[in-house]
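From: lab user (bench 3)
To: helpdesk
Subject: output format question, protein + adenosine-5'-triphosphate

Hello, I'm new to running complex predictions and I'm not sure whether the block I got back is the full result or only part of it. Here's what I submitted:
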Amino acid sequence: MSAKPPLLQVSNLGVTFRTEHGTVRALQDFSYELDAGETLAIVGESGSGKSVGALALMRLINDPPGRISDGSILYEGRDLLTLSEAQMQQLRGNDIAMIFQEPMTSLNPVLTVAEQIGEAVQLHQKVDAAAARNRALEMLQLVQLSEPERRLDQYPHELSGGMCQRVMIAMALACTPTILVADEPTTALDVTIQAQILDLIHDIKQRLGTAILLITHDLGVVAELADRVLVIYAGRKIEEAPVRTLLQSPRHPYTLGLLGAMPRLGATKDSTRLTEIPGIVPSLLEPIAGCAFAPRCSFAVERCRTEAPQLRQQGDAKHYAACWRSDDLAQPTT
Amino acid sequence: MLAFTMRRLLATVPVMAIVAIIVFSLLYLTPGDPAAVLAGEQATAADIERLRIALGLDQPFLTRFGQWIGGVVQGDLGTSVFSRRPVMDLIIQRLEPTIALTVASLLIAVAIALPLGIIAAWRSGGIVDRVAMSFAVLGFSVPVFVLSYLLIMLFSVELKILPVQGYVPIAYGIGPFLSHLILPALSLGIVNAALIARITRAAMLEVLNQDYIRVARAKGLSVRKVLLKHALKNAAVPIVTVIGISFALLISGVVVTETVFNIPGLGRLTVDAILRRDYPVIQGVILVFSATYVVVNLLVDLSYGLFDPRIKY
Ligand SMILES: Nc1ncnc2c1ncn2[C@@H]1O[C@H](COP(=O)(O)OP(=O)(O)OP(=O)(O)O)[C@@H](O)[C@H]1O
Ligand SMILES: [Mg+2]
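Helpdesk reply: Thanks, we reran it on our side. This is the complete output you should expect:
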């Protein structure tokens, strides 16, 4: 393709948290790119740093205790880490919007749906309350919420979880952002509602061309929505590849572990959640010598415990993995 | 809402009835024979007896309570034993300074406490938080009269910019009215601010940890907007409640402050009446204070629905 720079280019991002026990390195040397209209999935176990990565992008890490210690976030040529708080506020919700895992608690219980959607519109598009309300209604129709007119003046407690998530999506998209960060948007919903929300996100992606940074536990979701996948472990990217490549020929034992119970593509979408990998996630308080996954890895050799593997390009041009033994994993398994 | 208001109003009737009974029984619970006290030291037993009959103190309790309560519901609180004037008139005469003092103190308390509590919660653990909360502990543990004297020493004696004491009615000009009001209102306000600030901080701290605050930030709202629009409204119920409670503290504070600053309000009337054992006046003032408190609580209850749509009546 052309040499046009990506929409978003995150380089060597580092995030630390000060705690009573010491400094937690929640994210280290974290880099990725996102093109306009593309969907990049970030997968990893609980505590691996997915949400921290998303919040860092929005510069919403609470300081204290958190701090973005290194790196750069280039968005349309500007480094977000050098912007003032006021400049970030113009960007948040307008260029980069976010939806969260818990729809029921993510809406303010004392404000109506119209107020919550409308305030972002009023803020960023400098329109009056009536126009903002119209936009809110338009958005509720876009996310296919039933009885949209009536919903406008309802409060979150009058809506179900699925409805709340539709409102959240409507709210996030109201100012037509170029990037939508979706942090586990379906995890808190029950299965049938999950499918509906996924269809909605799929539909929106097609219609609006919004780039999506999709954080998830669910490989079914990845298979359905993502163009590329990034696997994160203990705050580091350990593998990245186009979705088919990653699902079919992972080059990191951790990814292989995550895929353990994953049915082949095209199989039924049940039980596609990540499998449990034996062992525990290492403490992020101490610097880790060697590969962070080595203690849990059945492929580990002596070198893995002493020397940290760097990301290396694999067979496919856009496939990277950080594993000394990735070539051994490349042996055809069928 | 209307039905709820009516129900709550009706519920205040038994409360007020109980208050009335307690207020009236005070006379019997306190030691000393009022007739003997009123008659003075030189009085003979016959003098005292005559006075007792004149005051109706010889009647049985229930008869006297019936007479008193019958008057109360018609707005007649009896007659002062000391000045022989209707208690209602005495109270109305003293009302303005007390209302001015209470309202000004409450405004000062809220004006200090809300910003302090909000900022302390937003920057919890930070310098502002620690200074504010030390102030709150201090403000709450220093008695009103100590604070009053400190303020008088500073502003009236040392700096000589405010009058030492006294009260000027608002009708005599807003300048003198305010310059006399400011110190007593400040002493009383600061003490109440301490309590309100602590509760505001606690309530805000809880709200600020909620997911929807992060969502509001992610929309691009400024910190100010997030705090004042999204957080404060959610924290409003405990804050309004504590403001209602602080009203009760104000009432007791008024008695002390009016004495220190020589303000001719209801507080002074109460103190004087107690010193003179002027029971009808004591009963009347306490009844008025209690009724005010009941009304304030009613208003607080009714206000919850304004802040939180989940509260249904
Ligand atoms: N406020 C905080 N204080 C201290 N450490 C934190 C804080 N927030 C995050 N961390 C650290 O960052 C790590 C990554 O957290 P993060 O929330 O990004 O995980 P996640 O991948 O989103 O997990 P999940 O799937 O459970 O949402 C945590 O393990 C924790 O050690
Ligand atoms: Mg998370």
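A quick orientation on your result: Chain A is about 35% helix and 20% strand. Let us know if anything else is unclear.
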